[in-house]
Amino acid sequence: MPQDTKTDSAIILALESSGNAASAAIMVDEKIAGFQEHKARHGHAETLIGLADAAAVKAGVQLADITHIAAGCGPGSFTGLRVCLSAAKGYQLATGAKPLGISGLSALAYHAAGHNKIGDNQIYLCVADSRRGTFFAQLFDAELGVLNEIKDYDIASLKALIIEVLAEETVNKLVICGLDEEGFKQNTELADLREEKIVDNNVKFHSHYLDARDIAYFALASLHAPAQFTLAGLEPLYIAAPKLGGARP
C-alpha cells in the first residue's frame, strides 16, 4: 500500500457481511457520508449490492468514483464472507479502486480503542460468533498490536483464555468486544467466571457489533499508518472449514 495516499481525497466503499447483518458504507472526506444496513441472519447475497447503491446515493457520489474498496474478510459466516469478497472484487474490477482487505476482529479492536480510554495496560479480546457454538477470537494490546493468531475457541477454551489473560500481573483491564454482557451472563460456563470473582471490575464489555462503518474507519487508519494497521488481500479469513449439512436455522 503506498504511503503517500491523500486520504482527504479518498472515496472509500466499505462492505461487511460476516455476521448477522449486511452493510455498506461510503466514506468521503474521512467521514461516513452514507450507510445502509440489512439486519438478517441470511440473505446477504440478495441485499449487499443494493445496500452499496443506496449508500452511494445517500452520500451523493457515484460508485464509479470510489478510490478504495474495503471489505471485511472475516472471520465469520462462510457464505457471508464469500458474498462480501465477491462483491468487493467486482467493484474493484469495475472501478479500478484499490482493494483493502480487513480483519473484522482488528476493526472491532480499533473501534473499542476509540471508545475505551482506560490506560496503557488494557487488553482487547475480540470475538465473532462462528454459528457453531464456538467463537473466533483474537487478543490485542493497548496499541492494537496483535498478541495471538485468530483461533476457533469452544466455550471452555474461551473461558481458559480469559482466566489466563486476567492472571497476567501487567493487565489491569480486559475489554471484551463482540460479546455483550447479557450474552456473557446467559452462557453458563462464562457466567461462572463472575461467580468465581475472576470477572469483576477488571473486565469491561464493549457491546458493539461489527458493521461496514468500522471497516471504513480501519481502512482510513491504515491509509494514514499502514505499518501499524495492516491489511490483507481480498481473501477470506477461514479459520475453520465450512460445516455442510441440513437446513439452516
Report what the structure shows.
A hairpin with a 5-residue loop joins strand 6 and strand 7. The protein is an alpha/beta fold and 249 residues long. The chain is 35% helix and 24% strand. It starts with 10 loop residues before the first strand and ends in a 25-residue tail after the last helix.
Overall outline: globular
Number of helices, counting only DSSP H or I runs of 4 residues or more = 7
Overall strand count: 10
Poorly predicted runs of 5 or more residues: 1-5, 244-249
N→C terminal distance: 41 Å
Give the structural class.
Answer: alpha/beta
Strand content: 15-25%
Largest sheet: 5 strands, mixed
Q: Tell me the series of helices and strands, N- to C-terminal.
A: EEEHEHEHEEEHEHHEH
**What value does the Rg take, in angstroms?**
18 Å
What assembly state would you assign to the polypeptide chains in this entry?
single chain
Tell me the helix content. 25-40%
What's the pLDDT, averaged over the residues? Answer: 88
Q: Largest beta sheet: what is the strand line-up?
A: 3-2-1-4-5
